Amino acid sequence: MTDSASAPSPSTPYQQWLDARPADSDAGWQHWSATLLSQFWSEVVVETLYSADDVLLHYAVFEHPQSKGWVIISPGRIETYLKYQELMLELAAQGYSVATLDHRGQGFSDRLSEHPQHGHVTQFDEFVRDFSDFILALKPRIGEQSCQLLAHSMGSAIACLYMAHYPHPFSSAVLSAPMMGVHTRPWPQSVAHWLIRIGHWFNKQLFGDRPRYFIGMRDYADVPFTDNELTHSENRYNWFRAMYQQHEEIQLGGPTVQWLMQSLQAMAELPEAARLIRVPVLVLQAELDPIVSPQPQRVFVGMSAHPATRLEVINGSYHEILMETDSIRGPALATALQFLREHQFAEPLEQSFSAPRRPKRAQRRV
Question: Domain Serine aminopeptidase S33: where (predicted)?
Answer without folding.
Answer: 66-326
